[in-house]
Design brief:
Layout (H helix, E strand, L loop, with lengths): L4 H13 L5 H8 L3 H14 L14 H10 L4 E4 L7 H14 L6 E4 L3 H9 L9 E4 L10 H4 L1 H8 L3 E3 L10 H9 L1 H11 L3 E4 L2 E2 L5 H4 L5 H9 L2 E5 L2 E4 L7 H5 L6 H5 L4 E4 L6 H9 L5 E4 L1 H11 L1
Amino acid sequence: MSQSRDDLMLEAAQMYYFEGLTQSQIGERLSITRWTVGRLLEDARKTGIVTITINHPRARARTLEVELLGKLSIDKAIVISGDDESPMAVAQAAAKFLADMRPHPRSLAVSWGRTMAAVADAMRKNWAPGVQVFQTNGGPTTVGVDAVTASIGTIAEKGPGVGHVLPVPTIVGGAEIASHLMQEPAIAGILEGAASADATIFSPGPITKDSVLVQSRYLRPDHIETFEKHGAVGDVMSHFITADGHLVSADLDSRTISLPLETLKNSKLSIAVADDIDKAPALLGASRAGLIDVLITNPETASALLDLAG
Protein backbone atom coordinates (compact mmCIF):
# COMPACT_ATOMS: atom_id res chain seq x y z
CA MET A 1 0.00 0.00 0.00
CA SER A 2 1.70 3.18 -1.25
CA GLN A 3 -0.91 5.52 0.28
CA SER A 4 -0.90 6.56 3.92
CA ARG A 5 -3.37 4.85 6.20
CA ASP A 6 -5.29 8.10 6.75
CA ASP A 7 -5.69 8.50 2.99
CA LEU A 8 -6.89 4.92 2.68
CA MET A 9 -9.41 5.43 5.50
CA LEU A 10 -10.73 8.55 3.76
CA GLU A 11 -11.01 6.90 0.34
CA ALA A 12 -12.61 3.74 1.73
CA ALA A 13 -15.12 5.77 3.76
CA GLN A 14 -16.09 7.92 0.77
CA MET A 15 -16.58 4.89 -1.45
CA TYR A 16 -18.59 3.08 1.20
CA TYR A 17 -20.83 5.91 2.43
CA PHE A 18 -21.08 8.16 -0.65
CA GLU A 19 -20.83 5.73 -3.54
CA GLY A 20 -22.50 2.80 -1.83
CA LEU A 21 -19.80 0.31 -2.82
CA THR A 22 -19.42 -2.97 -0.96
CA GLN A 23 -16.27 -3.75 0.99
CA SER A 24 -15.22 -6.24 -1.70
CA GLN A 25 -15.63 -3.61 -4.45
CA ILE A 26 -13.63 -1.10 -2.43
CA GLY A 27 -10.90 -3.70 -1.90
CA GLU A 28 -10.64 -4.28 -5.66
CA ARG A 29 -10.30 -0.55 -6.34
CA LEU A 30 -7.66 -0.02 -3.69
CA SER A 31 -5.91 -3.36 -4.26
CA ILE A 32 -6.43 -4.50 -0.68
CA THR A 33 -8.49 -7.28 0.92
CA ARG A 34 -12.07 -6.70 2.01
CA TRP A 35 -10.96 -7.55 5.57
CA THR A 36 -8.54 -4.61 5.43
CA VAL A 37 -11.37 -2.43 4.13
CA GLY A 38 -13.48 -3.44 7.12
CA ARG A 39 -10.70 -2.44 9.52
CA LEU A 40 -10.21 0.88 7.70
CA LEU A 41 -13.93 1.70 8.02
CA GLU A 42 -13.93 0.76 11.70
CA ASP A 43 -10.85 2.91 12.36
CA ALA A 44 -12.43 5.79 10.41
CA ARG A 45 -15.33 5.78 12.87
CA LYS A 46 -13.09 5.45 15.91
CA THR A 47 -10.81 8.32 14.88
CA GLY A 48 -13.66 10.65 13.96
CA ILE A 49 -13.02 10.72 10.21
CA VAL A 50 -16.53 9.29 9.97
CA THR A 51 -19.32 10.33 12.32
CA ILE A 52 -22.79 8.86 12.11
CA THR A 53 -25.94 10.84 12.85
CA ILE A 54 -29.33 9.18 13.03
CA ASN A 55 -32.16 11.52 12.07
CA HIS A 56 -35.40 9.93 13.17
CA PRO A 57 -38.19 11.05 15.52
CA ARG A 58 -37.46 8.07 17.78
CA ALA A 59 -33.67 8.39 17.66
CA ARG A 60 -31.94 8.43 21.03
CA ALA A 61 -28.94 10.24 22.51
CA ARG A 62 -26.77 7.19 23.18
CA THR A 63 -23.79 9.09 24.59
CA LEU A 64 -25.93 10.71 27.27
CA GLU A 65 -27.56 7.36 28.04
CA VAL A 66 -24.17 5.74 28.61
CA GLU A 67 -23.04 8.62 30.82
CA LEU A 68 -26.21 8.41 32.92
CA LEU A 69 -25.72 4.68 33.41
CA GLY A 70 -22.17 5.37 34.56
CA LYS A 71 -23.10 8.02 37.13
CA LEU A 72 -26.52 6.98 38.41
CA SER A 73 -27.84 3.87 40.12
CA ILE A 74 -30.23 2.97 37.31
CA ASP A 75 -30.55 -0.01 34.97
CA LYS A 76 -31.66 1.72 31.78
CA ALA A 77 -31.68 5.25 30.38
CA ILE A 78 -33.76 6.45 27.44
CA VAL A 79 -32.83 9.94 26.28
CA ILE A 80 -34.79 11.20 23.31
CA SER A 81 -32.88 12.93 20.54
CA GLY A 82 -33.68 14.89 17.40
CA ASP A 83 -35.12 18.37 17.16
CA ASP A 84 -38.25 17.70 19.22
CA GLU A 85 -37.40 18.09 22.90
CA SER A 86 -40.93 19.06 23.91
CA PRO A 87 -42.60 17.48 26.95
CA MET A 88 -44.86 15.55 24.56
CA ALA A 89 -41.83 13.89 22.95
CA VAL A 90 -40.73 12.52 26.31
CA ALA A 91 -44.29 11.38 27.05
CA GLN A 92 -44.41 9.58 23.71
CA ALA A 93 -41.16 7.79 24.51
CA ALA A 94 -42.58 6.70 27.87
CA ALA A 95 -45.83 5.54 26.27
CA LYS A 96 -43.88 3.53 23.70
CA PHE A 97 -41.75 1.93 26.42
CA LEU A 98 -44.87 0.76 28.27
CA ALA A 99 -46.55 -0.51 25.11
CA ASP A 100 -43.38 -2.38 24.04
CA MET A 101 -43.00 -4.25 27.34
CA ARG A 102 -43.05 -8.02 26.86
CA PRO A 103 -44.94 -9.68 28.26
CA HIS A 104 -47.54 -6.92 28.47
CA PRO A 105 -47.89 -5.76 32.08
CA ARG A 106 -50.94 -7.20 33.78
CA SER A 107 -50.86 -4.35 36.29
CA LEU A 108 -49.41 -0.87 36.36
CA ALA A 109 -49.00 1.62 39.22
CA VAL A 110 -49.25 5.26 38.13
CA SER A 111 -48.66 8.51 39.98
CA TRP A 112 -50.59 11.59 38.90
CA GLY A 113 -49.28 14.86 37.58
CA ARG A 114 -48.93 16.90 34.41
CA THR A 115 -46.30 14.58 32.95
CA MET A 116 -48.38 11.49 33.60
CA ALA A 117 -51.32 13.23 31.94
CA ALA A 118 -49.14 13.70 28.85
CA VAL A 119 -48.13 10.02 28.97
CA ALA A 120 -51.78 9.01 29.20
CA ASP A 121 -52.57 11.15 26.16
CA ALA A 122 -49.71 9.52 24.22
CA MET A 123 -50.68 5.93 25.00
CA ARG A 124 -51.93 3.98 22.01
CA LYS A 125 -55.11 1.93 22.12
CA ASN A 126 -54.88 -1.78 22.95
CA TRP A 127 -51.44 -1.36 24.47
CA ALA A 128 -52.11 -3.98 27.19
CA PRO A 129 -55.55 -5.65 27.06
CA GLY A 130 -56.88 -6.47 30.52
CA VAL A 131 -54.39 -4.29 32.38
CA GLN A 132 -55.21 -3.17 35.93
CA VAL A 133 -54.04 0.40 36.59
CA PHE A 134 -53.59 1.55 40.20
CA GLN A 135 -53.13 5.11 41.46
CA THR A 136 -50.09 5.39 43.75
CA ASN A 137 -51.02 8.44 45.82
CA GLY A 138 -54.06 10.49 46.74
CA GLY A 139 -55.22 12.93 44.10
CA PRO A 140 -55.41 16.69 43.55
CA THR A 141 -58.42 18.73 44.61
CA THR A 142 -58.12 21.64 42.22
CA VAL A 143 -60.83 22.10 39.62
CA GLY A 144 -59.31 22.64 36.19
CA VAL A 145 -56.74 19.85 36.23
CA ASP A 146 -59.09 17.30 34.70
CA ALA A 147 -56.38 15.80 32.48
CA VAL A 148 -54.26 15.18 35.56
CA THR A 149 -57.01 13.55 37.55
CA ALA A 150 -58.20 11.51 34.58
CA SER A 151 -54.78 10.17 33.58
CA ILE A 152 -55.13 6.88 35.46
CA GLY A 153 -58.51 6.23 33.85
CA THR A 154 -57.21 7.20 30.40
CA ILE A 155 -54.25 4.81 30.59
CA ALA A 156 -56.60 2.02 31.73
CA GLU A 157 -59.22 2.79 29.09
CA LYS A 158 -56.64 2.58 26.32
CA GLY A 159 -55.42 -0.79 27.62
CA PRO A 160 -58.25 -1.60 27.56
CA GLY A 161 -58.39 -2.44 31.24
CA VAL A 162 -59.64 -1.21 34.59
CA GLY A 163 -58.45 1.85 36.50
CA HIS A 164 -58.40 2.01 40.32
CA VAL A 165 -58.44 5.59 41.59
CA LEU A 166 -57.69 6.57 45.19
CA PRO A 167 -60.69 8.64 46.39
CA VAL A 168 -58.66 10.45 49.07
CA PRO A 169 -56.41 13.51 49.43
CA THR A 170 -52.68 12.93 49.18
CA ILE A 171 -51.87 14.95 52.32
CA VAL A 172 -54.22 15.13 55.32
CA GLY A 173 -54.26 17.04 58.60
CA GLY A 174 -52.82 14.39 60.90
CA ALA A 175 -50.97 11.09 61.05
CA GLU A 176 -53.89 9.36 62.72
CA ILE A 177 -56.27 10.41 59.95
CA ALA A 178 -53.83 9.14 57.33
CA SER A 179 -53.41 5.84 59.14
CA HIS A 180 -57.17 5.28 59.41
CA LEU A 181 -57.77 6.13 55.78
CA MET A 182 -54.99 3.83 54.56
CA GLN A 183 -56.53 0.99 56.54
CA GLU A 184 -59.90 1.40 54.84
CA PRO A 185 -60.41 -1.77 52.73
CA ALA A 186 -61.04 0.07 49.45
CA ILE A 187 -57.98 2.29 49.86
CA ALA A 188 -55.76 -0.45 51.24
CA GLY A 189 -56.71 -2.67 48.31
CA ILE A 190 -55.64 -0.06 45.74
CA LEU A 191 -52.35 0.58 47.51
CA GLU A 192 -51.71 -3.17 47.71
CA GLY A 193 -52.43 -3.45 44.00
CA ALA A 194 -49.96 -0.64 43.30
CA ALA A 195 -47.34 -2.25 45.53
CA SER A 196 -47.47 -5.55 43.63
CA ALA A 197 -47.81 -4.07 40.12
CA ASP A 198 -45.63 -5.33 37.28
CA ALA A 199 -44.35 -1.77 36.76
CA THR A 200 -44.62 1.62 38.45
CA ILE A 201 -44.35 4.85 36.47
CA PHE A 202 -43.97 8.30 38.00
CA SER A 203 -42.57 11.74 37.39
CA PRO A 204 -40.86 13.56 40.28
CA GLY A 205 -42.13 17.01 41.11
CA PRO A 206 -39.77 20.00 41.37
CA ILE A 207 -39.65 22.11 44.51
CA THR A 208 -41.83 24.98 43.22
CA LYS A 209 -44.55 27.16 44.68
CA ASP A 210 -46.86 26.60 41.72
CA SER A 211 -46.97 22.81 42.04
CA VAL A 212 -50.29 20.97 41.96
CA LEU A 213 -49.76 20.17 45.65
CA VAL A 214 -49.82 23.91 46.39
CA GLN A 215 -52.67 24.57 43.98
CA SER A 216 -54.67 21.83 45.72
CA ARG A 217 -54.02 23.57 49.04
CA TYR A 218 -52.31 20.56 50.57
CA LEU A 219 -49.32 22.85 51.11
CA ARG A 220 -48.76 26.58 51.26
CA PRO A 221 -45.95 28.44 49.46
CA ASP A 222 -44.24 29.01 52.82
CA HIS A 223 -44.20 25.23 53.38
CA ILE A 224 -42.27 24.87 50.14
CA GLU A 225 -39.79 27.52 51.33
CA THR A 226 -39.30 25.66 54.62
CA PHE A 227 -38.78 22.31 52.88
CA GLU A 228 -36.26 23.90 50.54
CA LYS A 229 -34.32 25.33 53.48
CA HIS A 230 -34.16 21.82 54.92
CA GLY A 231 -32.69 20.45 51.72
CA ALA A 232 -35.75 19.37 49.74
CA VAL A 233 -35.17 19.03 46.00
CA GLY A 234 -38.63 17.80 45.00
CA ASP A 235 -41.17 15.09 45.62
CA VAL A 236 -41.72 11.54 44.50
CA MET A 237 -45.39 10.56 44.65
CA SER A 238 -45.94 13.37 47.23
CA HIS A 239 -42.95 12.28 49.38
CA PHE A 240 -40.51 15.21 49.63
CA ILE A 241 -36.87 14.13 49.42
CA THR A 242 -33.37 15.60 49.69
CA ALA A 243 -30.55 15.35 47.13
CA ASP A 244 -29.46 12.16 48.90
CA GLY A 245 -32.93 10.65 48.64
CA HIS A 246 -33.85 11.02 52.31
CA LEU A 247 -37.26 12.17 53.49
CA VAL A 248 -37.32 15.86 54.40
CA SER A 249 -40.04 15.69 57.05
CA ALA A 250 -41.16 12.63 59.00
CA ASP A 251 -44.22 14.55 60.19
CA LEU A 252 -45.30 15.42 56.65
CA ASP A 253 -44.69 11.88 55.48
CA SER A 254 -46.85 10.47 58.27
CA ARG A 255 -49.72 12.59 56.88
CA THR A 256 -49.14 11.51 53.27
CA ILE A 257 -51.37 8.91 51.66
CA SER A 258 -49.12 7.34 49.10
CA LEU A 259 -47.19 4.22 48.22
CA PRO A 260 -44.18 4.27 50.60
CA LEU A 261 -40.82 5.02 49.00
CA GLU A 262 -39.42 1.76 50.39
CA THR A 263 -42.15 -0.06 48.48
CA LEU A 264 -41.23 1.83 45.31
CA LYS A 265 -37.59 0.88 45.86
CA ASN A 266 -38.56 -2.80 46.02
CA SER A 267 -41.05 -2.68 43.14
CA LYS A 268 -40.66 -4.99 40.15
CA LEU A 269 -39.84 -2.16 37.76
CA SER A 270 -39.83 1.58 38.52
CA ILE A 271 -39.91 4.02 35.60
CA ALA A 272 -39.17 7.72 36.08
CA VAL A 273 -40.24 10.17 33.39
CA ALA A 274 -38.91 13.74 33.36
CA ASP A 275 -39.56 16.39 30.74
CA ASP A 276 -38.26 19.47 32.55
CA ILE A 277 -34.78 20.57 33.63
CA ASP A 278 -36.26 21.70 36.97
CA LYS A 279 -36.83 18.03 37.80
CA ALA A 280 -33.13 17.13 37.58
CA PRO A 281 -32.42 17.61 41.34
CA ALA A 282 -35.36 15.39 42.29
CA LEU A 283 -34.23 12.78 39.77
CA LEU A 284 -30.78 12.73 41.34
CA GLY A 285 -32.25 12.27 44.81
CA ALA A 286 -34.56 9.52 43.59
CA SER A 287 -31.75 7.68 41.84
CA ARG A 288 -29.51 7.88 44.91
CA ALA A 289 -32.33 6.38 46.96
CA GLY A 290 -32.61 3.48 44.52
CA LEU A 291 -36.08 4.51 43.37
CA ILE A 292 -35.42 4.43 39.61
CA ASP A 293 -34.81 1.41 37.39
CA VAL A 294 -35.58 3.09 34.06
CA LEU A 295 -35.15 6.81 33.35
CA ILE A 296 -36.88 8.44 30.35
CA THR A 297 -35.98 12.06 29.67
CA ASN A 298 -34.67 14.62 27.17
CA PRO A 299 -31.07 15.77 26.49
CA GLU A 300 -31.44 19.05 28.38
CA THR A 301 -32.62 17.35 31.56
CA ALA A 302 -30.09 14.53 31.16
CA SER A 303 -27.24 17.04 30.87
CA ALA A 304 -28.43 18.96 33.93
CA LEU A 305 -28.66 15.70 35.86
CA LEU A 306 -25.12 14.72 34.87
CA ASP A 307 -23.84 18.14 35.99
CA LEU A 308 -25.48 17.69 39.38
CA ALA A 309 -24.16 14.14 39.72
CA GLY A 310 -20.61 15.45 39.24
